[in-house]
Design goal:
alpha+beta, about 375 residues, elongated, 8 strands
Length: about 375
């Protein structure tokens, strides 16, 4: 009877104690989160309750397993399994705590600087994201190494592995040259402020917003909701446009092809009225000029300004549409057309007409002189 009751008490007591401690810890974190609304730390720490309870249970079982006397013939295997669970749950908990602390620090910084320096906030967000990934990778590698060292065979082979570490490092470096270059490029992007999450970029003729940056690849979300994924080494080896560098303010252009008789002064006044009614225009500057001419049309360009890339797109499409509607409704003669009739001669006064008639008569007389009478 004692052989059955003791394992039940040990295992059941460990599970019950784990649940009680987990519930008490979660209750304290919930109350702290309700008191301190200015920081998300306590709410983020509540997400770590699963690895926390798993770690507690593994610690209690590992400490009391010898007293339970359960599965005595497999004591080594059970103890090693509990050790593996203990190491894995500890690594999981460390990653969750680190993520909560880093995210809290970023949230506090972003709330204080979002209005004054949004570019700096995006840079810190990129760095925080990569730092969190690096920490997760380092903790994961350390946890896997600790798990492997629980096996005696791995400890025995440790000396030979360390002795050949130089050769293995060279071989691994040559084999993973591309991966390592991408990882170093990711760190360079994070701390070199080349591109940040949320930046508006143009890559290979595609316009979009940087959505995700990792140590090896970068994702750009285009205006039509497509995702372009490319290695981060691309951004350190090839030129690209970053519209969010410096100040986000931008100047955009709108082109029209109109007839030579287009009312340019009326178009300038209409451009001013359109921009005053457009909320996306930032009011900094605008103008309208003739930039080129062809035998049948004039090329007219309007310059407009906006506070960022999204607003400049809105201003451009609004100006283009409303100006064409204005010309079509009030000045249809200004729209480009193909001439199929002869040009109308300019009007002349009476003296020019008489002079021209005299010249035409003289030409006819010279071409057909009158016959002499016989």
């Amino acid at each position: 009877m004692d052989d059955v009751l003791r394992p039940l008490i040990v295992v059941g007591g460990s599970v019950v104690l784990t649940l009680l401690l987990g519930w008490a810890t979660d209750l304290l974190l919930r109350k702290a989160d309700e008191r301190h609304h200015e920081t998300p730390l306590w709410g983020l720490l509540r997400r770590a309750r699963v690895p926390y309870q798993l770690l507690l249970c593994a610690v209690l079982l590992r400490a009391s397993y010898d007293e339970a006397g359960l599965l005595s013939s497999h004591e080594v295997a059970v103890g090693r399994m509990l050790s593996l669970v203990l190491i894995g749950s500890a690594a999981w908990l460390a990653i969750r705590i680190a993520a909560a602390v880093v995210e809290t620090s970023y949230s506090r910084y972003a709330s204080n600087h979002r209005e004054r320096d949004p570019a700096r906030v995006r840079r810190v967000r990129t760095q925080v994201t990569l730092i969190r990934r690096v920490v997760s990778a380092v903790v994961g590698v350390v946890a896997v190494a600790a798990m492997l060292l629980t096996f005696p065979a791995m400890r025995a082979a440790g000396a030979s592995l360390l002795a050949s570490a130089g050769i293995l490092g060279i071989v691994a470096g040559v084999a993973a040259q591309s991966t390592l270059s991408n990882m170093f490029a990711g760190l360079q992007i994070a701390f070199g402020d080349m591109v940040r999450i949320g930046d508006t970029v143009v890559v290979d003729g595609e316009w979009g917003t940087v959505e995700e940056i990792t140590l090896t690849f970068l994702t750009v979300r285009t205006w039509d909701e497509r995702r372009i994924t490319m290695p981060v080494s691309y951004f350190t080896s090839k030129p690209f446009e970053n519209w969010s560098r410096g100040t986000p303010q931008m100047t955009g252009t709108v082109f029209w092809h109109v007839d030579h008789s287009a009312p340019l002064d009326a178009m300038r006044e209409k451009l001013r009225d359109i921009l005053r009614e457009c909320p996306a225009w930032d009011g900094r500057a605008y103008n309208l000029t003739v930039t080129d001419s062809t035998p049948s049309t004039l090329e007219v360009r309007a310059l407009v300004t906006a506070k960022d890339a999204d607003d400049i797109w809105t201003v451009r499409v609004t100006v283009r549409e409303r100006m064409m509607r204005f010309l079509s409704d009030e000045h249809p003669y200004a729209l480009p057309r193909v001439n199929t009739a002869d040009a109308v001669p300019p009007p002349r006064d009476g003296r020019e007409s008489a002079h021209a008639d005299g010249l035409r008569t003289a030409r006819r007389v010279h071409a057909h002189p009158p016959r002499q009478p016989r």
